[in-house]
Amino acid sequence: MKGVIIAVEIDARTVAVGDQIMIGGQPLVVRDLTALAAGRKRLQFHSGETLVMNRTTVLWAARRHNPRIPRGRPR
User: pTM of the predicted model, to two decimals?
Assistant: First the structure.
């Protein structure tokens, strides 16, 4: 995938497969997401580890973004 890597603030609603999250100084890449009750999500990483994000948990992630693809509202 082409593009640049940008830092984005994520929560359980906006986290996406492929996001790279630093936890304990270790970069972990999200492999799979599972929706849980009360707006929580279980993240599974390529390393085999898991993390449950509460609805109010806020983290920073590195995400690949292609600036040539238009995003936002159509005109």
Answer: 0.81
